Amino acid sequence: xxxxxxxxxxxxFEDSSRFTYIIDIATDIAKxxxxxxxETPILEETKLFKRSVGESxxxxxxxxxxxxxxxxxxxxxxxxxxxGVVRAFIQDKLDRRQNEKFKFYYYGAMFRYERPQKGRxxxxxxxxxxxxxxxxxxxxxxxxxxxxxxxxxxxxxYRLEINSLGCSRCMPPYRENLINFLNGCxxxxxxDCNRRIETNPIRVLDCKNEKCKSLLRExxxxxxxxxxxxSSDFNRLKELLDIANIEYSVNSNLVRGLDYYNKTAxxxxxxxxxxxxxxxxxxxxxxxxxxxxxxxxPAVGFALGVERIMELVKMPNRERDGYxxxxxxxxxxxxxFPLAHRKRKSSSVTIEYRAKKLKAxxxxxxxxxxxxxxxxxxxxxxxxxxxxxDLEKSEESILKIDEF
Length: 404
Ligand code: HAM
What we know:
This protein has helices spanning 13-32, 46-52, 58-62, 82-91, 137-153, 171-184, 191-199, 210-216, 228-243, 288-291, 306-310, 336-343, 358-367, 378-383, and strands spanning 36-37, 43-45, 65-68, 74-77, 102-111, 123-132, 159-164, 249-250, 262-269, 278-284, 299-305, 323-327, 349-351, 372-376, 385-390, 395-400. It is an alpha+beta fold. It has an eight-stranded mixed beta sheet with strand order 1-5-6-11-10-9-7-8. α5 (137-153) runs parallel beside α9 (228-243). The chain binds histidyl-adenosine monophosphate. Histidyl-adenosine monophosphate (HAM) is lined by residues 80-82, 112, 114, 120-121, 124, 126, 128, 130, 257-258, 278-283, 301-305, 307-308.
């Protein structure tokens, strides 16, 4: 039997209704916050991700679905959505319209060659938003509020963690400071951390190894060394969250797994889904557009992991909906097609083509959760009527076909 690849899943029935329920709610809220839909290709040039997500990140270093296509191009299946949206933003020359703001939402499949486990897939789906052109911290707050609104609408409890990753003024001296600290405890840090001291020392702060974690408690913290602009933005963000009654905690080791962030970084975490607990993450990335070869444009965004949220979401009870139509004699089937076509203008209609007894039709209507079961039997065929049962109210009636 040919099966789906390891770490990749089909979505059907209950899963696909959960999936579309989440996307519909997130889309509705993103639109209310002024976002419009963008679709970018799944395949992009590998160098886009190297340049944006970062050569030293785990994603680019170990997890890319990368290959040479038939034309000899080095391409990659997107591991995340931001880079493609930034590429499209620049390609459409929107970076030249410096006084305007652009807000995009997207959803779709992302690919990371990770070790699959609960909540961690190789093909997974994100819903994300990217806002370009606004450097005020109000936008960071508004995005966090929007993610909170999405989770509230889905009935999901979360913890919000925030941090500031500083800017090109305060990050470099902090980095030196941190490297000095890390060099002092190299022997006690794990192998990965030792490698990261050379490649990307900030990522050491994110190590999950218990021994490293306890050593890092004593490390210098960037939030204690922010420049005045980053510090006042971070304080303002906290104030705005307080005023809006959005609970958060400051996690000074929250560095995110992608290299493009500066200033605000945040993660929404759930305590109900095991070790892969991040359900959404994002932050500000003011240097990325320039880095990918556009004109310098401030930007901030987030993405949520749909599969992780599918584990948590409580779906509302599905109400009975639409029509099931059937006949008791096969010679009457032609009468159903115009009837169904008319009803499909406003409702969903399923026709059972095979003639069946009334009881079997009622079962069929129940199986698809239809609101109405419509049947043409011998008498109805003779009289130009239909038999209709409202399965919610348990009421039966006979109606003239023309009036139905
Ligand atoms: P990220 O934190 O790498 O950020 O991914 C966002 C979310 O995708 C995570 O919080 C998680 O819920 C989900 N996710 C990540 N990897 C997996 C996986 N292997 N299996 C299942 N779910 C996963 C980004 O991708 C950034 N592009 C977010 C962003 C947008 N920042 C600014 N704009």
